[in-house]
Fold this sequence. Notes:
Structural class: mainly alpha
Oligomer: single chain
Amino acid sequence: MPGGEYLRFRVLTQYGDADHPPVPDDVLNYLTWCKAQHGLSTSTT
């Protein structure tokens, strides 16, 4: 899990307000993206 400062930064850049609650669909999209990026970094070609 990312640190609090990073999460605050991401929420600020996503919604324009560091205190905005994350939207569940946005969290799921982010986690899907993270999973895809992890798969790219561990693949061997």
